[in-house]
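Mods, move this if it's the wrong board.
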Amino acid sequence: MSKPATAEDADIVMQLYDLRRESEMRKARHWFAGFWPQNADDVVAIINAFNTQENAWFRQVCGYWDMAASFVLRNALNEDLFVDSNGEMWFMFAKVYPFLKEIREKNKLPTFLTRVETVATRTQQGRERLDFMLERVQARRTAAAKASQAS
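Not the wrong board. Structure tokens:
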């Protein structure tokens, strides 16, 4: 059970929202929204594409959500309010979750998105949201693969 929500928690949520609106973060989020990895190698390729815009955007989005999840895990932010205030973290996480173990192994990054994973899976509400998002992402991933094959 997380600490009771306070006005300070609400301020932190609003600050997190404002950070998501920053121009470079918007570009990163826009790119990530269109990134439909089909397997771990697609993610590994981006992680290893040093000095590319896609690598920077990938790190920016993943780092942002890992930082935000850290606030929850360190009791700096009410977990229920955080979960209620966003769905984007689950969307981002669902894109890499099916490949997470392999991504961590191939890149020797055992802590990659561990804070996001903890927040996304430690409560019933979080797991339900992740399951829902995994279904949506898989449907979109399948559609993206079919569209790619058709062209």
